Amino acid sequence: MKGWILACSLSLMASSSFADTNPFSYVPKFEVPEIASGVGFLDKQREAQIGTKVYREVYRVMPVIQDPWLEDQLFSTFSQLLTQTQLGKPVGLLLINDRQINAFAVPGGLFALNAGLITHARNLDEVVGVMAHEVAHVSQRHYSRSQEAFKGQGLLALAGILVGALVATQGSGDAGTALMLGSQAAIMDKQLNYSRNQEREADRIGMQYMYALGYNPQSMADFFEVMHRETSRVSFLPDFWLTHPLTSQRMSEARLRANQLPKIHKPRNQEDFDILKLYTAVISQQASEQKLLSLAKQNNFAGQLALAAYYQKSGDYSKAQDTLNTVKLHNKQHNLISIIQTDIYLGQNHPDLALNTIQSIAKITPENRALNYKLAETYIRLNQPNEAQKIVQKFVQKNPQDVLGWELMYYAANEDKANPLQAVDVLRYRAEAQFWSGLEQEAVKSLLQAERLSKDNQSMSAKLKKRIREMQQEITAKI
Ligand SMILES: [Zn+2]
Questions:
Q1: pLDDT tens-digit map of 180-216
Q2: What spacing in Å lies between the alpha carbon of 58 and ligand 1's midpoint?
């Protein structure tokens, strides 16, 4: 049962400390007996605690992409998969700005995807295949079972290794590292038989989730082949390969298993995926202007939309506007059109025009976070902080880990000169944004400062004291 975690820790050592120590010298310590099902499961509360702790750690050390539209697209797909499991509310889904194909999962239901996974996939089903595989690792509690193998080490330390592995492998495309990774994989291949069993199980169960939801299980096998080709092309292994060893046997088994399931004929809108993919490429700085231009010239809607986003993100608002005007000629509805248009107006310092663009569409879809956060941002620019806070408050109440939401609350409070508690509000919203993005000590400091400022306000002072205690408990919790 050691494989999954161990694979991660191996890739960490592969790229960070291979030269100094022999990482394999400690592998034998993890010899594990076969684990019967139902033994040694972590309790759910502890898992959730680990999940949120790692969530903060990922935020602190990794380039997390904050783009509400993208986050919400991926989260809705991911939520569909979760309906197939007994897992409760997940800790979250984070998108990492990394061009390598990778994904990982942590107990408690924290999932992360690299932007590279989306930009390498050819359709949504291929992305869902990897998501489903990750969800299956968590639903089958492979992590918890691995925990049995690591008695004496905190699970949190292992989660740290997991995150560390991802950090260490970032930008690992150079030849030296590639060589090391290759040999690591070869060694893993020989040693990690349990890992293969877990991988097989995650493939099998992941495919069942896909099938139940009308996604094509063949796509999981297809994407394994994409990764395989990628490996021969770039001469280094995608990270996903290291944490989920992909042997040729596993690949052929996945294909056989997919062949056994009835064919899926559910038509899916390829254009929707193309938008997701190209927009992800823009947001993660993987898009080239040339490529987007050539797609746009072919009157490709997704290409034009991504090109408009590309120009807007690079601050070229007149080109962005010209391109968005061609997008509008298609007469198609898309939330990104409104979002990009609003951003162009904000960039050109026309918050009034921005408000005209976003207000009505955001108000008729109050549950849409991307549109409503854009509206809140516009209100802040128009010096209407209370309007902004009213919108964002609902989202952060529902999801207190929403870093972007807390940042908006903070910016709004900063503008709210009429508020007698302005300084306190600025500090406590900043504290939440700091806490959830992993700056734990800074967060406590902000709250202590807020608490000093609210000495005369008993209820606020009590509220702040309570939150300080909670944060300190979370920070020092032994997991
Ligand atoms: Zn796996």
A1: 333 333 333 333 333 678 888 999 999 999 999 999 9
A2: 19
